[in-house]
Design goal:
Blueprint (H helix, E strand, L loop, with lengths): L13 H14 L4 H6 L3 H15 L5 H15 L2 H14 L3 H9 L6 H15 L6 H9 L4 H24 L17 H8 L1
Helix pairs in contact: 1-3, 3-9, 4-5, 4-6, 4-7, 4-9, 7-8, 7-9
Length: about 190
């Protein structure tokens, strides 16, 4: 199995060093995802840029996390689901919604459930959801800008989810908290066997 380095500002390719330093300044540490992505300055910059743009979107912080988690869970990304469980709680998401996202059950809040369903549909259908799905999303109180912001979330999470699958990104120390850990359904079956 090919191993991927966890880069620091000292070991990363030149094009990744400044982004790693900025990440450390903003977050207080360099997440292992960023340390892994640093192998490719282009990949790190793409993820970092998209993540920053989603934070500026017209989706609320809770709505951003709903969309992120919908994609994370759909892709079965254990690292990102754990990380965004933390970020969802930090954004003030109700715990019942946090758990519904993690377990694939409906969210009680109809607006958040509409967002989750739309984000999942976009990923599942690779964007070919059809006009009725877009119309239903708008009818739930979202905007045309939100439609495109969901696409931006999908792009952001595709970079991180796929990177984590391909490189086996190590968990962060804080992810040892049992309330954050999440096992993808494909791995639940394997563990039970």
């Amino acid at each position: 199995m090919t191993r991927f380095d966890l880069h620091t500002a000292d070991t990363a390719p030149e094009g990744s060093r400044q982004l790693l330093a900025q990440t450390k300044a903003a977050w207080g540490f360099v997440p292992t995802l960023h340390a892994t992505l640093a192998e490719s300055p282009v990949a790190l910059a793409a993820y970092d840029t998209l993540f920053g743009l989603v934070a500026k979107s017209t989706l609320t912080p809770v709505e951003q996390q709903v969309a992120y988690q919908a994609v994370n869970v759909f892709h079965g990304c254990e690292y990102c689901t754990a990380g965004h469980t933390f970020l969802s709680r930090k954004a003030g998401m109700a715990e019942d919604a946090v758990q519904a996202l993690r377990e694939g059950t409906p969210i009680a809040d109809p607006r958040l459930q509409a967002l989750r369903a739309f984000a999942e549909a976009v990923v599942r259908a690779r964007g070919l959801v059809g006009d009725a799905a877009v119309d239903a999303f708008i009818a739930a109180g979202f905007t045309r800008a939100n439609v495109l912001e969901v696409v931006t979330v999908v792009a952001t999470k595709t970079i991180s989810n796929y990177t984590n699958h391909l490189t086996h990104t190590p968990y962060e120390a804080f992810m040892a908290d049992p309330s954050l850990a999440w096992t993808a359904p494909r791995n639940r079956v394997a563990a039970a066997a």
